[in-house]
Amino acid sequence: MKLPSLAIAACATLLLPLTACGGSARAGDGSTVTVTVGYQSKTINTVTAGTLLRSLGSFEKQLDALGDGTRYKVDWQDYATGAPITAQMTAGKIDIGSMGDFPLLINAARGKQLGAPTHLVSVTGYNLRGGLNTIVTAPDSKLTSLDDLKGKKVSTSVGSAADGTLVRALQRAGIDPVDGIEKLNQQPAVGASALSAGSADALSQFVAWPGLLAYQGKAKALYDGAQLNLPTFHGVTAREDFAKKRPAVLEAFLKAQAEATDYLDAHPVAAAEKVAEATGLPAEVVYLYNGAHGISTFDPAVKPQLVDALKEDVSVLKAAKLTGDIDVDSFVDDRYVRKALGSSYAKRLAAAPAPAASEVWPRDAEQTLTFATPAELLAYTARHKDGVRAAYVPDATTGTLWFADRAVWVADGEDLLPFVAPSTARAYVDAHGGARVITYADALGRQS
């Protein structure tokens, strides 16, 4: 089959595998239709539309249940970021894709620009305060606040949700996001290497990179994205022509996404293990974000506050000259997910995130333990030092979950309070006479 020159150029430019240029939602021999799904396996905030969904086989089962006499084949294509998914979607080579909020807007803009409109049809994971993005530094870095980033080299992926967090955080700190720092536009893995090599002073990235680097002892948090108190999320986008031609297929995907979401909620540890097995990420890192009290809440419903946040994001992309005006209302189309989920949609739409809680994953256990306070978690951990696989605590200010042994701890009288970043810990200490920062070892020792 002869491909249009635009598609050939797109594939050559992005260095995609040959299978990525084979077409999508196409009939192979007159009886088989291939549905192409672009996903980001290691962007674990999208697992209910990608990694976990694929491992459960839910989409294939829903397609088999259509009973329309058509044989369906799902072509799963894995990418590191949303940009190549958008390139393939606008070239007509991917039918359904998942990506973060800022890439979704670029997806909308590119689709309209190229006459291949796309629509946001559902949400995967979200955090209403913005905790999915984090700025980190090297473990031995002397940087302790955003002010320290002035004139420094900061790695991020331009146009990503993490870049949006960086821009907004710098603006709030009174630092020009263009001239105040030296921004390095790098893919997450490249940025992580740059941080380790010392060629970048800080790294602003999305899930699961900050948590992974912290877990590995290769980074420490400098800024918790939840300090912005602005929602961040990932979602599912579909080509308009595909949705109109095969609405039943799109609805089958959204039903499967809901099944994967329910599985994750009911079996968070097993889901983390499945995602870890498929991605090579440590299960402890996956659970930090996707666990029962993780940073991310999963729900396919398109909540109004997320749409409002998307509208606020447009100005950041326009200022960076990555897009022009974007009609968010016309981009958002929840008709398919409403139909797919039926009467349960209203309940999902009204659902709120689970309250933050301290949690321990005991070694060799199939479920975690939840504690009412961080101090209770410390007491348990102190008694079972060799029996704890991972311990998680919520930031006392933002609620963002973090590894207990990577958190900044503050002693305030008898209270022991964890924080993701040193600046939030310092702000608490400054506002509470007698409070002081202590080490994790000291915090454990107080409970042993």
UniProtKB/TrEMBL annotation:
UniProt xrefs under InterPro entries: SsuA/THI5
Short name of any one Pfam family annotated for the protein: NMT1
Span of domain SsuA/THI5-like: 85-271
Signal peptide: 1-27
Keywords: Signal
Statement: the UniProt record of this protein carries the keyword Signal: yes
Source species, domain of life: Bacteria
Keyword flag Cell division: no
Protein name as it appears in the record: Nitrate ABC transporter, periplasmic protein
Origin organism lineage: Bacteria, Bacillati, Actinomycetota, Actinomycetes, Kitasatosporales
